[in-house]
Design brief:
About 25% of the residues lie in helices and about 30% in strands. The protein has 6 helices and 12 strands. Helix 1 packs parallel to helix 4 (about 85-95). The chain is globular, with a radius of gyration of 18 Å.
């Protein structure tokens, strides 16, 4: 069930009537506003604008959604490919004029030679669980050109847990890593499957990057505990 794709197609075709409701294992219900996914550069958060400014060469926009980042890059002369596992999202990207698209899961994508891999809107979250992060980074590294880079956005969600008197945080005992969250989306009375999503603190990201011989640097911090990091293959 392609909840995201259905909502994006409705908006693209002028049938927008409601937003996506999201439910998470953090006991939170939220709304994903569909018009926001069609925003132009001027309406993007500064951290996204900075990421786009750091792009170079041949770009792979992973989890491209409605394609707003890809459209901006394409208009500015980049050779960009939008990748998303949502068929509806890719249909919207094509309708909006993105020339190169692919509908697949990232781990099933094997083209190489990208100078930039872009993972915005907590794009690293698609790795799902911390135990899968090393495999995800290894796969991404193989898609890069020798001087390529991975630009990714994530958030440290430790602030969402109860702080104890000693300054630490209370984390439920059944959680392997506090940034592992499960989500479900609902649209027009239809509920999609439950899926895993990963929020990463920067120190954990840096440690896993080191394990894959990737240099990790903080590029920018956002207003809501989010950050932009750049990963690049180490030179020997």
């Amino acid at each position: 069930m392609d909840i995201l794709g259905s909502a994006l197609l409705d908006f693209q075709e002028g049938n927008y009537s409601e937003d996506i409701t999201t439910f998470s294992s953090l006991d939170e219900e939220d709304v994903l506003a569909i018009p926001y996914l069609f925003r132009d550069f001027e309406k993007m958060p500064l951290i996204e604008q900075k990421a786009l400014a750091f792009c170079k060469g041949k770009v792979l926009d992973v989890g491209c959604g409605a394609g707003s980042h890809s459209i901006y890059l394409q208009k500015n002369g980049f050779n960009v490919m939008g990748l998303d596992q949502s068929e509806g999202a890719i249909q919207v990207c094509r309708a909006r004029g993105i020339k190169r698209t692919v509908c697949t899961e990232f781990l099933n994508f094997f083209e190489t030679g990208f100078d930039t891999i872009l993972l915005l809107m907590n794009g690293i979250g698609i790795s799902g669980k911390l135990e899968k992060l090393a495999e995800f980074l290894k796969h991404a590294k193989k898609r890069l050109s020798p001087n390529g880079q991975i630009l990714l956005e994530s958030s440290d969600i430790i602030y969402m847990f109860e702080k104890e008197e000693d300054g630490g945080y209370w984390i439920p005992g059944d959680v392997d890593y506090y940034g592992e969250v499960q989500f479900q989306m609902s649209y027009k009375n239809e509920k999609g499957p439950i899926f895993d999503w990963l929020y990463l603190d920067f120190e954990t990201l840096a440690a896993y990057a080191e394990g894959e011989n990737l240099h990790c640097e903080m590029i920018a911090k956002g207003d809501h505990y989010d950050y932009l990091a750049r990963l690049s293959p180490k030179k020997y």
